[in-house]
## 1
Amino acid sequence: MTVFEVLADPTRRRILELVAGQEQPAGWLAENFDMSGPAVSKHLRVLRDAGLVSVRQAGTQRLYRLDPGPLSEAEQWIATTTATWSANLDALEAHLDQTNP
Amino acid sequence: MTVFEVLADPTRRRILELVAGQEQPAGWLAENFDMSGPAVSKHLRVLRDAGLVSVRQAGTQRLYRLDPGPLSEAEQWIATTTATWSANLDALEAHLDQTNP
DNA sequence: ACCGAATATAACTTTAAAGCTATCTAACTA
DNA sequence: TAGTTAGATAGCTTTAAAGTTATATTCGGT
C-alpha cells in the first residue's frame, strides 16, 4: 500500500494527528472514533505496515507514535510536481515578457 | 472526494505529473496508460471535480493542465503534522538535555 | 496457575471504486 | 450536411477496502 493510499482514509489521517504530538495507547485512540475497536486496530495495522507509525509495548498496552519518514516521501512528490508546474509558469511569463516587452 | 483520496490512485498521480509541465490533450494522456480511453477519461473527470486540473477546449481536443491549489492543501496537512512531531521531538530533547546535562 | 484487561486477528458482509464495452455529443472537414 | 475524429457518459462487472461480531493472544496481578 502506497503512502497516498494510506493517507486517503480520514480515520487514518486523524490517527496520525493524534499520535504526532506524543505516543498514545491503542485503546485511547479507539475512543476517539465512532467505530469498533477492531476497526481502529486494523487501521493501526495498515499504518504500521506502511511505516507511518511505530509501536512500543508498555505493560499491557501498546503505545503508538508517528514515524514521519514516509510522510516526507509524499510531501516530496507534491513539492516536485508543484515545482514542475511553477517552473513552466515562469518560463511562460519569461516568454511573454520577451515577446511583449 | 478529498485531495488525498484523489491522489491515492497511481494513474491519477501520473496524469498530474504529465500535465504539470505543460497542458496536454486527453488523447495523448490516454496513450500513456495501458487501459481504455474511457477509463482515463473517468480519471480526468475525478481530477477536474477535485479542482486538480483545468481544461481548455482547443478545436476538437481538450487540453488539460495542472491546477496546484488543492495540492498545497495536502502539502499543508503533511507539513503541519510533521511539524507537530518535530516540535515534540525538540521538547523531548530539551528535556533530556536538562535532566542529563 | 488463573483471571481480567488491552489489543490483535479471523471470518464474513456491504459498498464503492476502477475497469470494460457500447453509445452519445461536439467540432472540424470535405 | 454527412462523415470523421476527439472525448465524455452510461450501464455493467469485478475487486478490494472498511466495517461488523466472534475468537485468539499476551501481559500483569492475585
## 2
Amino acid sequence: MKKPAQTSATTTDILMVSDATLRGFVGYHMKRAFNVVQADLVRTLQPFELRMLTYSALVLIVDNPGLRQSQLADAMDIERPNLVVILDELEGRELVSRDRVPTDRRAYALTATPAGQLLCKRAVAAVEAHERALLSGLDDATRATLVAALSKIEKSGKSRA
Amino acid sequence: MKKPAQTSATTTDILMVSDATLRGFVGYHMKRAFNVVQADLVRTLQPFELRMLTYSALVLIVDNPGLRQSQLADAMDIERPNLVVILDELEGRELVSRDRVPTDRRAYALTATPAGQLLCKRAVAAVEAHERALLSGLDDATRATLVAALSKIEKSGKSRA
DNA sequence: TATTAATAGTTATTTCACATAACCATTAAG
DNA sequence: CTTAATGGTTATGTGAAATAACTATTAATA
C-alpha cells in the first residue's frame, strides 16, 4: 500500500486555516468579494492611469458639469482636503478644469475637458466590460437581488451616520 | 402669490449630484454598502480596543490555535510584514502568545491566552448583534442570496489572481 | 454699517491598511 | 557542504481616509 504521497515531510502540518467564525458575518463576505472587485478595477483602470478615486471623481464631474468641490466631496463621501490632490491630478492632466464661479468667488465650478470626457467614456466602457466578466456567474435575478440588498444596507447606514 | 420660499438666495443651485453612471456598477454598490458595514464594525470594536485587523487576527488565532504567522498572513490576505505589528499589539496586550515551535525553530505557534479568548468571544457576540441590527431589513432568503453571490464573486477572483 | 459667523478651498499632518525590499536565523535540497 | 528556500523581522513607501488650522470670500447680526 502506497503511503499517500507523504504529504508533509516537513512538520508543517498543512492544516487548512479555518475562518468559520468570520464566515458567519456578511461583512466578511463583503470585504472578500469587494477585494476581488477592487483588484480587478485597479487593473482595469491602470491603462488609463486612473485610480479608483480619480476615476469616480472624473465620472461624477462628467455627469454633473459645473458642480463645486464641496458637492463632489460630499457625493464621494470624502473630506474636502482629500479631494484637492485628486483634482490637482486631474487638472494637471487637463482632464478637468476648475473655473471660478462669478457669483461666488470662493467656489470653483468643475467641468471635464473634451479629453476628460473621452477618457471617461473609454474607462467606463472598460470597467463595464470587466465587471460583466467578473459577474458572469450570476444570473440577472441574482444580480438584481444583490444590488437591492446592498442598497438597503447602504441606506440603513445613512440613518445612524 | 408667494414666491416658493426663495429656495436659494445664493446662486448655489442645490442641484442634486447624480451618480447614475456609477450606480450602474455593482462594485460601486458594494463599496458603498461595505463602507456602512465597516463603519459600524469599527464603532462596535472600539470598546474592545480592537481594529478590524486585530479583531480578525484574534478570531482566526482562537479558531486555529497553534497556527504560524505565515499561515495567518495567508488567511488574512495580507503580507507577513504587516502581520508583525498586529501581533505585536495583540501580544503586548497579552491576548495572544508567540511560542517557539520546537520542531522548527524559525516559526512561532500562535495561541490565544484565556484573556484573548474571552475578549474574542465578547467581541464576536457584539459584532453579531450589530450585524443583525444592520441587516434587519433583509429577510433570510435575501441574506442567503447575498452571501452566495458574494462568495461566487470572491471565488471568481481566486482563479485570475 | 461694522463686526461676527459661516463657507469654499487649501495646506500640513496623522492614521490605517496594505505592499516591497532587504535582512537574519534556520531548515531543506543539491 | 554549499546553496535554496522558509519564517519572521525591520525599514520604507503608497493610497485612502481623517483632523486642524489657515486664507479668501460671502452671509448674518447687532
